[in-house]
Structures
1.
Amino acid sequence: MTDALFTGLSALALYAGWRVFRVDSMVRASFWLMISFIAVGGIGILLSAPYIGVATVFMMAVEMTVMVIFMVMFMMNPAGLNPMMMVHQHRFSIGAGVVAFAGMTAATLLTDLPSNPVAAGKAVVHDLGIELLGDSMLIFETAGVTLLATMVAAVVLSARTGRFGDAVEGSVPPGLEPGGTPAGRVPEKSGGHHHGSHGDGRSDHAHHHEGHDHDGGGHDHAGDKEKHA
Amino acid sequence: MSLAAFPFLAFFLTLGAVLAVVLDAVARSALAGAPAGRYLAGPLRQAAMRLSGQLVTTEAPDRANWRLAPGWYGALAAAGLAVVPFDEGLALVQLPTSIVLWGAVEALVVVVVFLHGWSPNAPFPLIGAYRYVATGLPVMLPSMFVLIGAALPARSLDVLAIVESQREMWNVVRQPLGLLLLLIVGLSLTLRGPMDYADSADLAGGSSAEDSGPARAMWQAARLAMLVAFSAMAATVFLGGYLGPLLPGPLWLALKTALVLVLMVAATHLLPRMPVSRMVTFLWVVLLPVSFLHLLAAGLVAL
Amino acid sequence: MTLASVLIVAAGLIGIGLYGALSQQSFVMLMMGLELIMNGALLAVLGFWSFALGGMPEGQLLAIVIMAVMAVEMAAGFALIVAVYRNRQADVTESLTTLKQ
């Protein structure tokens, strides 16, 4: 029974992991990855680690949901309407994957692995709790602080405005062709913020709307005209 | 694993779903001030219409996920109910960490509802799916704190132990705030009332806007199943589950589940719904700190 | 189910993850490859813990640390992706050439 379950879950984990890079949609890819994690969580339960196994499932469900949101934000073809195969150094990667697998498998098979299985009926979850808040508390707390630091770093990195003005101030996306107009979305020119009466219209616009330094032409003229007037 | 729990599980799911439909109809008729009979016939008529209706499809949907989503949702409801003990030691799945398994079910509900809204490849369902993720993910955090808080007096993550720890005093007496927070989580899990951001009427049905015929009936049935599973879980974790004098355990659990069902249906029909942005702010700024404090208080009491 | 079989499955996951991390152009897909490698590592740790350490609690702690690393990797990774996208409108690795000779 255990062996059959293990074989099934292993096959599912590997198949799902392989599908991640073969499906046409980011959403499908991340949910295949989630299935791979769920299968590994199931194997964890079989390996008598019920807490780690189940915790993997819920953590990955949440993580992959977040991943999907980012996927759809950043990727073309979120719905998978077109085939999607965006790879580079494909052969080398396949080779590296195969070599890594073969090497680790060989190492596994050639090593005399120690055998000291978990005793049946051992209170592993209880042990884990005692360990987390006992001898290894420092490690556990370090993980917590690291996560907090990561959250702060993530907010700082992804925030649009920083301490010294807009995060994107002064940076212009590269042109579509060398020396051409910058790529990216340029907000439509709309009335309401043509208040170039401060003389130096350009720097004034720069902090209000980051897109405006791309289409500076029109604004410059407006500013100049007012200056001349 | 105790297979003897299986008939109870099937019984709870079917009877609970019927009860939920009746309660919904009664609530509607009470609010409308009209006789309940007309409202009781409504769901039946609708179910018959849906089941005999034809399946309409959209352009280039993800057919597999679209068709499977109601099945996943129902399966999650069954998996959640599987860890609920119907009597002493009578739970289908027995794990030392079964409350964490319920947490995993809650997290996977967000995934399934998102898939259900994403797969038809149509605007309203997708908006519903996104709105649900925006509100469903922050709801997960209070949910975890509430469940951990409920596990504290038992000193165990096993639902069986959590029930046994309530022999002298139900958890709802120890942690009244916990039940309230868990009910909010439940409204989100079952896409109901104030937390119905996925399937609401303002999006013409949201994530199920493009569902038709039997598929829509299946989705509604799965929502009812999840409602029953959640109510049984809330009754188990906060109202002492199968514990009670005189009557047999399963009957006590059924009565308590029905009580939570009544609360859920009342909340569905009586509470207003906030705009998504305000709800997201509320969830992060109010509900999350409140659940922190709740866990702190629960921990201090358990000490 | 033996330690060797668990480790071979873990090796398979790591191999697939390595392929993904090396071959995918899109940042997000690249991170999926990294996650898959971590998945294999988690399985290997669980296998060793279960078959070779006699249920030593430190083994489970290591698994929890791996989960924390996955969360950190994802949060920091997505923040970097957002920052790069804001600055350069880039969502594939080929667009980042500032360190190229």
Note: The CA atoms of residues 156 and 290 of chain B lie 23 Å apart.
2.
Amino acid sequence: MKTILKLTRYGAMNAVRSRWILGYTAFFFLTTEGLMRFGSDSGRTVVSLLNIVLLLIPLVSIVIGTMTVYMNRDFTELLLSQPIERGSLFAGQYLGLALPLVAAFVLGVGVPLLARAGEDGANIGVIVMLLATGKVLTLIFTALAMVVATRFDDRAFGLGAALLLWLMAAVVYDGLMLAMIWLLRDYPLEMPVLAMSIFNPIDLARTLVMLKFDVAALMGYTGAVFEKFFGTALGMSLAASALVFWLCLPFWAGKIVFEKKDF
Amino acid sequence: MIELRNITKRFGAHTVLNGLNLRFDAGSITAVLGPNGSGKTTLMKTILGLVRPDKGEVLFAGENVVGTSEYRKGVGYMPQIARFQDNLTARELVQMIRDVRENPSATREDELCERFHLTEHLDKPLHTLSGGTRQKVNAVLAFMFQPPILMLDEPTAGLDPISASSFKDVILSERNEGRTIVLTSHIMSEVQELADTIVFLLEGRVVFHGAATELLGRTGEKTLERAIARLLQESSSQRENTMRDNVIQETAQ
């Protein structure tokens, strides 16, 4: 555990001094500030931010994660020649990469949002949920990046696979879901759609934030079913478990690949 | 002392190391030579644990260390390419490696930094340092813990003649202190100057293992470069003969 913390510390020190993390923080800060200043109300700002968060965080986390792992390949070999367990090295490198990304998001989005939270009665619950899901999405997609970049030695192929994963989760999955809803429109689909939303972390994050708004009622019967489900202790714990599962699965898979890999 | 017993490693259909048996003794410098793709790097990486062999054992002080990490406290590795986490300074990198090795007391980074003229560069971010300076940082990381085993992959590549000469002096003094040193190099004059023993690999097999003088005597050449070229020629003509014999046998059948 000590080794993991040490590796995380140095990895994070390296990451926070890089230009891309400063740019990432500045982008979120300026976007949030801009939306807060020029948007009509904080509710809309959070919805606009939600759309940015749901698309951008997975994309940036998986692309920067994949590229960083590839760029650090030689340094990883140097660390592997030290008396460190492979599992600890994997965990340390993962946290050293993911935590600065989480911090950039929290600073860029969280600070301007929370600073004005009291001004116009914005819903603190929505902001907290937005920040929480943003953090978890960063952790999930950085872990996915670690799996892809460890599994594939070919950088172009690895980056392509990472982008494909993002596209599947952020765009294609929703398209398939819509197609299914349209094709089976004569059947009651609330429960299958609810189940499907759990199997995609981006959809799960979107659902959790949306239900914190008072807009669920506007979504008709489906919204009511979703609210009823996620409003219960069982629903929330199932959603939380699904996010934890999504966090653990790629981390565990990446660790296994890393432990067996020939460098 | 390190011993490899029947080490075999395949990458797909390609056998990179084919039943290698080797011993690297304390107080000696062994140069592992061979053409590109002969298995030199895989051999080094197998000893370091970066590559897991399909078969065989790596014995470190008599114990099989395949799949373990603790034995690497006794190993210093200097890779050919000096790439680090570039936003850290050289001093932070040295401290990082000290930290992950749990701050052993007897380290000599100050002396090595002085010797390699690195002291003035210690507080600069690593990405601002030249290739040669980064290679010196690599050398400090490998030597600072005074490990009994040193694995050096093309150690003088990228160093200017003065630094290379000073570095070779360090390698020789380490050998004289009883360390086991395994190195690869494409510079034959350097091998001739440093190596007590030569291991020549071809297609994952040991073609020659012995003293440099023995290799010169066996090939009748005056320089190591020519001796190695002769060895390669002999090996390829032997291989052609074997292939021809096989074809003749198959045709006869």
Note: The domain at 2-252 of chain B is CATH 3.40.50.300 (Rossmann fold).
